[in-house]
Write a structure and sequence with these properties.
The protein is mainly alpha-helical and about 180 residues long. The protein is about 45% helix and about 5% strand. The protein has a two-stranded antiparallel sheet with strand order 1-2. The radius of gyration is 18 Å and the shape is globular. The mean pLDDT is about 85.
């Protein structure tokens, strides 16, 4: 009811994930008093955040669908696109990066299904860029990728997402008062 369970992308489907979390909590209280407070806590743990101050630190709390809309010049939508980890989550997880960093808007892009599920699938980012992207300048500009190739290695992930966060913030700031 408070917007907590709207679709957020990257695996969060409101009518599946939200319902699953609520039902999981209800199951813990079978044959007991209805768990009103516990259910409220499910919502509290997934708050909707409203802010007028946009910064690198709160990008992940913004509505992702609208953020993608602004990032992609207000003309590309998620429809017919995959929300793709720029640097593959399997590689980043093996390097012990946290899930909050791996699944950050700073590491997501919109890309066509065929590319994401085909030749790009799971490849190290720099390898993908060097060997498979034919028009690198256009790709970099479109997806707000830092142009410093030295940070395209997964070992430099913190540097990559810090710089990309700045690029995202600069882009969306063009459209905000």
């Amino acid at each position: 009811m408070n917007g907590v369970y709207r679709s957020r992308g990257a695996g969060w489907v409101a009518y599946k994930t939200g319902t699953r979390k609520l039902l999981a909590e209800i199951k813990k209280h079978k044959n007991k008093v209805f768990p009103k407070e516990e259910l409220f806590n499910v919502y509290i743990e997934h708050p909707v955040v409203f802010t007028k101050n946009y910064n690198i630190g709160n990008l992940d709390s913004l509505d992702r669908s609208f953020l993608y809309y602004l990032m992609y010049d207000r003309n590309q939508t998620i429809r017919n696109q995959d929300i793709d980890h720029i640097m593959p989550k399997s590689i980043l997880a093996s390097l012990k990066y946290g899930w909050d960093e791996i699944n950050s808007i700073k590491n997501f892009q919109l890309i066509d299904y065929g590319t994401n599920r085909g030749i790009k699938n799971g490849k190290p980012f720099k390898e993908w860029m060097v060997n498979y992207v034919s028009d690198k300048p256009s790709f970099i500009k479109r997806h707000l990728i830092p142009d410093n190739e030295d940070i395209w290695e997964e070992s430099r992930f913190p540097d990559f997402i810090e710089i990309r966060a700045g690029l995202i913030l600069a882009k969306i700031s063009k459209y905000l008062p």
